[in-house]
C-alpha cells in the first residue's frame, strides 16, 4: 500500500508542486522539458509587440526563453503553485522589474485576465490536469484578441506505447469544443521526441 501512497504523493507534486520537494520538481521539469518548450515557442509565430500568456508556467523557463529571443514581447505566466512561481520570479526578476514579465497565481479554469488582451496563449504539459476542457478553452477564447492563437503541447505516448486516453480527449472533447467556440485552423502537429516521449501540439486561431 505504501508504494501506491508514495506514487500518489509524487503525482500530486507534479500537479501542484509544494515546498522543497516541489521546488526541486519545478527545476527538474525545466531540465526535462527543454526540447518541447523550445519547439512550442517556435510554433507561436509571435506578432511584433505581442502579449503572450503561458498557462502553467512552472519555474518560468519558457517565459525567460521568449524574453531572451524577443525584446518587443511581453509575457504573462500563470500557475497554481506558489512554490514554482517563486522560482519563476527569481528566474525573470529583471524582466518583472522592467514590466516585460508578469506572474500570477491562479486556475486555468478562471483566468483573471481582461477580455481580448492576449495575442498568443501556450501551455506545455498541463492538458493532463485540466478538469474541464470546455471551460479552459472558453477562457482562452475570451482572453485572446481576434486572430490570436493558441498552442497546447502534450505527449500522446512513449516509445511504441500509445496513450489512448489523451488522444481520445483531443478527438472527442478538445477539437469539438474548440470548433464550437469558433476557433479556426484547429490542427494537431507532431513534434520532436523528448526522452522517448512523443511530443504533440494542438494549435488554433481565434476568428478575426
TrEMBL record:
Domain of life the protein comes from: Bacteria
Assigned EC number: 2.1.1.-
Alphabetical keyword list: Methyltransferase, Transferase
Keyword Transferase appears in the UniProt entry: yes
Chain ranges passing through the membrane: none
A biological process term (GO) from this entry: methylation
Residue ranges of domain Methyltransferase in the record: 47-160
Entry keyword annotation includes Membrane: no
One GO MF term: methyltransferase activity
Record's protein name: Class I SAM-dependent methyltransferase
Protein source organism: Exiguobacterium aestuarii
